[in-house]
Amino acid sequence: MKKIGSTAIVAAVWFLGVGATGEASLTAADRRQVVEQLGQTLEANYVFADKAKTLAATLRAHLERGDYDGAQDKDALAQALTKDLIAASNDLHFFVGVDPAFAADYAARKDPARAAELRETDRRDEAQKNFGFTDLRRLEGNVAYVGMSHFAEPELAYDAASAAMRFIENSDAVIYDMRYNNGGYLEMAQLLASQLFRADKDQELFDYYYTDDGRRVARGQWVLTAIPAKRLTGKPVYVLTSSTSFSAAEWFGYSLQKLGRATLVGEQTAGGAHPVDRKPVGTDFFVQVPIGQIHDPVDRGDFEARGVTPDHVVASADALVVAHRLALADMAKSDTAKQADAAWFAPTLAARAKAVQLTRAGLEAIAGRYEGRQIAIVDGKLLYTWRERFRATLEPLGNDLFAVEGVADFRFRVVRKAGKIAALERINREGTTDSYARLD
Length: 440
Description:
8-stranded antiparallel sheet; 12 helices; 27% strand; 440 residues
């Protein structure tokens, strides 16, 4: 499958306004040649063949009107062409750039030896980005968290994906963070999503077709019957979204939502539903062009230009805390043993949603010596010390309750009597308490 949501989309933001230096000015003949080559590339690859002809004609009309006469260098022309393509198509996937090395590499890949060298370069580049896996964590209540910047090609990223899938295989729920994911290869989305379904059920995830230099390919992607980790069948799944979730990242959440397999939390996504590919335009330019259409496995629809609507619409910055709360609540509904977890972690998640701040006077009132332990103020925070050598920061949770850095099995409560702090009470997760009297 072609790449969905190329990193060129992100790069476009940085390319805008950056002019070339030290190169000869483009002539009218140069500009005409680029526009003609771009039109031919669009007609051979754009998903909508009739619209491709219209787009090519639109660019030629701009050229004839002299709209590109002011583009004296390649970057300026690329920016103008990108702007006009997006305006004419309302498709944010389009991007025209200048990259002679890409055009040369594209041609070189026809040579097996050179193709192998470039493949190894791709692998090294992806390895530097950890193949898109930015964060793997086990959250409170045995909830797995998977943060991803993009979907790397599985052939390159299989080992990293396998490790991530094994990391989360024993969790009771999983949260996939797509808030800052700009897309990538749909096959990676297929691999990760396959862990959420049974292997013995024929379940389609994506249905699509695309064109490649005039060749039309139609196929579907289904749940894989063999994966490198245990499946999370029946476990609650949440996908975090934002306005910067793009293309394949949107499809991952959208299809799981349609299949009733995931709950989406966050903001409306960008609305880039079409698969894209990079194609050379001459020897110096390239175009990122939408080459196909994808449909969800239920309604055969998509979200192009409108985005994916979450089940729980919240500010993207708050989405993780909200999803974590929902996960604990859902787990408690189906497992009474998990009800205690939901209650225990509620203050911690509430504090994360709205950070509790103590005044200097509040900090000074708590600082002091207690039986076998001491609390001091260090860099504006409360530092808890016991046995004169072990230290951890206390995180205020509100109502005189404090979490202990790195500890999930107990927390502290400040006990006040007659307006003064009289003791430090340790509240153990299993329900018991221990009290340490204040000594000063």
